[in-house]
Structure formats: structure tokens, C-alpha cells
Amino acid sequence: MNGSETQTPGRDFIRDIVAEDLASGKHKSIVTRFPPEPNGYLHLGHAKSICLNFGIAQEFGGRCHLRFDDTNPAKEEQEFIDAIQRDVRWLGFDWGGHLYHASDYFDQLYAWAEHLIREGKAYVDDQNAEEMRANRGTLTEPGKNSPFRERSVAENLDLFARMKAGEFAPGARVLRAKIDMTSGNINLRDPALYRIIDAPHPRTGTKWRIYPSYDFAHGQSDALEHITHSICTLEFEDHRPLYDWFIENLPVPARPRQYEFARLNLTHTVLSKRTLTQLVREKIVEGWDDPRMPTLAGIRRRGVPAEALRDFVSRIGVAKANSLVDYGMLEFSIRETLNRDAERRMAVIDPLKIVIENWPEGHFEEVEAVNHPAMPERGARKLRFGRELYIERDDFMEDPPKKFFRLGPGREVRMRFGYFVTCREIVRDAGGKVMELRCTYDPQSRGGNPPDGRKVKGTIHWVNAHDGVDAQVRLYDHLFASPAPGSATGNVMDDLNPASLTVMNAKLEPSLLEFPAGQSVQFERLGYFCPDLSSTRDRPVFIRTVGLRDTWAKEAAKS
Ligand code: ATP
Ligand code: MG
Q1: Most CB contacts within 10 A, which of 15, 306, 348, 393?
Q2: Active site residue 507
Q3: 377-389: pLDDT as tens digits
């Protein structure tokens, strides 16, 4: 999982570098940053980067900036800027007063672009995108110099100023660094510094008609903020020589260094804003916060606590080699956290009615149900046991194998917090479907301990038909059926899971109505759930965060 490296817990190669730089006195304190582009919502991959950057700052007594890489107004929106701040805070991190935008530096970046022109290290190119692509060369062939490469400084300054003034159409001209069209590293073949984009910017309005490229803005923003360790994902390794070239060729106030780590890849999951945007636009999901989305907004709505995510990120570690993490690891962290924190309640998501024939009509008995088995201080609530109950359809089998310790014809089972019940008769509809079970109970088995010392192996949950509350329950599965979406056809959309959402009409014990949206609860024996944002008292909607591991499902899978 961590590539070929071994690491001690809480330590990784980046933290080692940081510790060394502090020990050697290279830096007195460290400054990191998390630099999202506001062109979508944050996803689980970003959570890894946030935990790394903010985590290092915390652990080493430094600070971490939140900086919006807002250099492409054609794709960026205020909605995303707001959502990103909400999500970073939710994850548990705080940038203090250190909120920045690449757009804060547009004047400085423009001045530095002019500086490069004056030094003969940048030029305005009139080639169109196609010509530029054709002349860039390939991995094996060098590129060709642009016919506009040798323009005079004066002409370049004039053309650049006119680009800024909005005299030219988008794509008509580009400011490029003059580095080396024959370099083995394509990033050094005269990369673009400024392009013309005709779109208003969320922060600078219509002031600018030209915008800096990612490469030109990023490192210089780092330098302006005195970032010491600029941590990014491996795809940027080949950009590092360019990052360093700018730092060496500009009068920047600090010399940050870039370090690369492996991005998070998760099975059954696509962590690409382009794909996530497509899912939202094409309404394949309800929105960025659809509980099936791997966005922080989605998994928060799903009921995943921020702590579970931080735990997951610390377990997967930070490595220099790309790898694929099993989604089950995330579920493990979620279960660990919720098992500890979530209260228990009973709900039946696929109800089958049972009628206890020897229980008097209209009679109810209160039983006490603990809210959390490991935390008595969380108290208990009263449930009403009665003649008509709902049980889970799965908890009955007509012809059960030996190891099925639940209900079957003639079989006895313990009703959680209640009595022993034996199935006597099956009632069917015209089509033969099981509609109801007629049962009897043992009046001496209350609390599960009849005086004859008889034991039953199974305990099942139930909801009283008299006061049970109708609710919609949404069961989610992976959005992508394949563990590696797109690996077969090259198109991730071919692997969409048509069964990623199943809607059930469930019965809840009444106390579940008191849970606010997003608050996790364990439905006993079923999993962790929370009321959805759309839930109301009149129309309760619960969504499944994650299932429990089911011992019978495992048994069944074996045979
Ligand atoms: P996408 O490929 O989804 O568009 P991005 O890298 O373009 O993602 P940014 O907003 O630029 O998105 O990312 C902000 C920071 O988060 C960057 O430093 C980037 O390296 C990091 N990041 C993005 N995706 C991942 C990932 N899957 N794992 C770890 N870090 C990531
Ligand atoms: Mg990016």
C-alpha cells in the first residue's frame, strides 16, 4: 500500500525532510499551503493533501495557508470557493488569517512577466494553438523554435501590454518563457506564461484579459508567501525544473522547494474533478453533495465523521510511488469511529410482519434498550413489545440451513431486549410470497433467560407495528461497479453501477425521529445510518453510511 517504502507510524519521507530542515537550521519554522483550484468541490484525494499540509504545519509548529489557485476564470466559481472553505474547516483544519488567492498576486506576476521579457527570457508568440502543438515536438523528438521567438524586447513589451489591454482575441497570442525547445523535458520547451481569456474573474472582475498559467502562478505564489515546502502530487515531478527555473530567474523574496508525493487512488472511485463535474452536469448524481460522490460534501452528508477520514488518511500514509487503496480501508476507519461514537437504535429496512398469537391483543409491555453497549452514560430508552412486530425479511428462511441462527418454521429466536419467539405458521399471498408469520412467545423468557436455562443462538431486531414509524431508507453502493473504473474501455462512465442506489420503505423505532440530519446512528445488525438533509418528521429519510460486516453474508458467500 505504501509503495516500496517502509515507514514508522506518523512519519513519512516528507515529514523526514521537514524535520531535517528544521534540525539543520535551513528553516526556523515551516510554512506549507493547500492550493485548490476552485473549479469543483474537494474530494477524498484533496483530503489526503489537506491532512498532509495542515498536519505537517501543526506537528512542526508551523503554519499552513489556504490558497485558491484562481487563474482560470473560465472554469472557476464562487460556489466552489465557498464550498472549499467549508470542507477544509469541516475536516478539522484552520488557516487562521492565512487565506490567499493567486489572484492577489496578478499585479506582481505581471511585473515579473515583464521582467522576463526585459531579460530576453520571454516572448509573445503569435502561433495558434495547433501550430504550437505541432512545433512542441514529442517525447522522442525535439521541438522547433517559434518564428516569433526572436522579437525585440520593445516589441514584446508592447504586444504584452496590448494583450493585457484586451486588443487581441483569446488564443491569438501567448506569452511564453524562452527556455529551450530541444529540452528533454517538454515542460521546459518555452512554456506558456500568460494566455488571453475572455471571462470575468470572481475576484478581479473584468480588470484582466490575460491570466497566468498554473506553472507561472504557482511557484511565484509560493515564494511570495514564503512557503518552505511546496507539496504536490507526482504528476508535477516533471514540472519541478520549471518551478526552479522561475525561482532562479526572477527576483523572488524566498526560495521555496517543491516535493512530490503519490496521489490517492481508491478502488471503485474516480478522483478527478473533470469526471465529478460530468456526473453533476449530466445529472447522474443529485449534485456535488450526493452521498455517493467521493466529495467531502458528499461523504459528510453520508454521515462520515471528519475524524474517520483523518484516521483513514493517517493509515494509508504518504509514499513516493502511486498505488491503489482498497475502498474497504476507508470503510474500516468509518466503522471504527462510528462503532465508538454512534448510538444504537432498531429499524427494519425490509419489513416482514409477525403476529404473536399468544400475546393478548391491545397489550404492550415496556422493555429497556441501551443506547450504547460500551457507554452506559448514554442511557437507555423504552420500547414497547407487543403482539404485532416487524422483523427483517432476511431474518426468516423457509428452509434454513443449520448455521442460519434466525427464524424458520418451528425455530425459536430471541427478540432483542424482549422475549423468545417461535415461528408456527407462514401466511402467503396469492402468488406464494411470504406475507406474515404467525408465532408464539415464551412468557418466561423476558430479557432472554428462561428459567429452564434453554438457550437460543440467534437474536434479531424488531420494530413494534403499533408505533413503528414509516421511513424511506436509501442504501448506497459504489458509484462505479468496477474496482478500476475505465480500465476495460478507457471510459469511466462505462463502469457506472446501475444499482448504486436502492430505496426501501422501512420501519423505525420512534426515537429515531429525534435525530438531526447528518447525525449517525447504528441500526442494530444493519449498519450505520443518518437522517438525510431532505429528512423531515413527516417524511423521514435515512441514508446508509456503511454496513456492518454480516457474519451470515460471509457464511453464505463461502458456499
Ligand atoms: P483534479 O485532477 O481532480 O482536477 P487537481 O489536482 O487539479 O485535481 P487541485 O484543486 O489543483 O485539483 O488540487 C489541490 C491540491 O490537491 C493539489 O496540491 C493536488 O496535488 C492535491 N490533490 C488533488 N488530487 C489529489 C489526490 N487524488 N491525492 C492527493 N492529493 C491530491
Ligand atoms: Mg491542479
Answers
A1: 348
A2: no
A3: 999 999 999 999 9
